[in-house]
Backbone:
């Protein structure tokens, strides 16, 4: 009986310590993780996922946080009359904008340059999904004269290759497909593995969202592994990207993946033309610290193929200085969005 009481008191003490530790860490914790608000995403038969309609919440990440509010059409945008959406802006998270609504390049184009834009970008998406969003909006009565495709070659080719890359559980987005990583640490771009949403992944996601103790433990583990890698002279961030990201690995074996992404863009332009609209490609610049000869080689290859069909490409830089991006998360910051708005407005003025 006495032993049972001791065990109970020990267990109770541990619970109390964990509660105080959690409360204390939450008080002192800085935002070092990216968490989309739960319920923002819903399942979609065509694209794998989409934004929930009429949702409001807050997206916090390592460098910033901002409010997210979707409209009746499931776009992260204010409600406007369909006929006023003359310029449809589509793209991934850089176009969606990790900034306040008014600071996105689509909104700067609207407020500063007086273009009638409408942003329906989908974070985490590729060209194929963005084309599908355009088709859906056409069915809903939209008929824009111009479509600005926020094209991010750094990951859009991968997104199209891995499509559908993400699935939704309980309003939370999970990666569902990825390239196989060899023992050498290099990705095998010809082999794709499925990533089921297991019970373990669900628990990890919930803990990551709700437990400061878990997040601190996770951060500590990463720091320890990072030190081990550094002591063993492991690859730095740039060489790791070269090993694992498709954009740095254009060759005869995976050229077809680039060709498929380019074909998706051309198909997008064709559908736009059939609906009396013009597609303009606004490429998201890469951070200069992640630029390399292999990256520039891939960009030149893509542009050469697109220009054969006389597609409109915004004249911006392939790579920009680090101060155009968030230092930790890496997305375009407010300055980066201003740059994109300026370059796109110059292209629109030439039409």
Residues:
């Amino acid at each position: 009986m006495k032993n049972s009481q001791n065990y109970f008191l020990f267990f109770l003490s541990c619970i109390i310590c964990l509660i105080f530790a959690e409360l204390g860490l939450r008080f002192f914790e800085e935002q070092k993780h990216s968490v989309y608000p739960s319920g923002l995403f819903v399942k979609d038969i065509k694209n794998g996922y989409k934004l929930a309609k009429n949702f409001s919440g807050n997206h916090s990440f390592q460098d910033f946080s901002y409010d997210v509010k979707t409209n009746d059409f499931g776009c992260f945008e204010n409600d406007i009359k369909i006929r006023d959406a003359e310029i449809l802006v589509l793209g991934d998270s850089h176009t969606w904008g990790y900034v306040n609504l008014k600071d996105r390049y689509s909104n700067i184009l609207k407020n500063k340059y007086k273009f009638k834009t409408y942003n329906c970008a989908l974070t985490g998406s590729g060209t194929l999904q963005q084309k599908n969003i355009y088709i859906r909006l056409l069915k809903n009565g939209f008929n824009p004269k111009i479509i600005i495709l926020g094209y991010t070659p750094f990951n859009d080719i991968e997104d199209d290759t891995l499509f559908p890359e993400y699935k939704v559980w309980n309003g939370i987005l999970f990666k569902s497909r990825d390239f196989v990583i060899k023992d050498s640490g290099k990705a095998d771009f010809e082999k794709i593995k499925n990533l089921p949403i297991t019970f373990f992944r669900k628990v990890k996601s919930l803990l990551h969202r709700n437990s400061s103790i878990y997040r601190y433990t996770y951060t500590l583990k990463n720091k320890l592994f990072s030190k081990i890698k550094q002591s063993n002279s492991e690859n730095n961030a740039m060489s790791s990207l070269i090993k694992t990201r498709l954009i740095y690995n254009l060759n005869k074996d995976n050229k077809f993946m680039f060709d498929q992404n380019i074909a998706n863009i051309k198909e997008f332009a064709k559908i736009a033309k059939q609906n009396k609209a013009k597609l303009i490609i606004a490429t998201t610049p890469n951070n200069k610290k992640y630029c390399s000869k292999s990256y520039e080689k891939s960009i030149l290859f893509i542009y050469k193929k697109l220009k054969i069909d006389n597609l409109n490409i915004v004249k911006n830089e392939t790579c920009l200085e680090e101060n155009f991006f968030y230092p930790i998360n890496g997305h375009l910051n407010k300055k980066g969005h201003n740059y994109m708005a300026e370059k796109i407005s110059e292209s629109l003025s030439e039409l």
Summary: The chain has two domains: 1-30, 41-349. The radius of gyration is 22 Å.
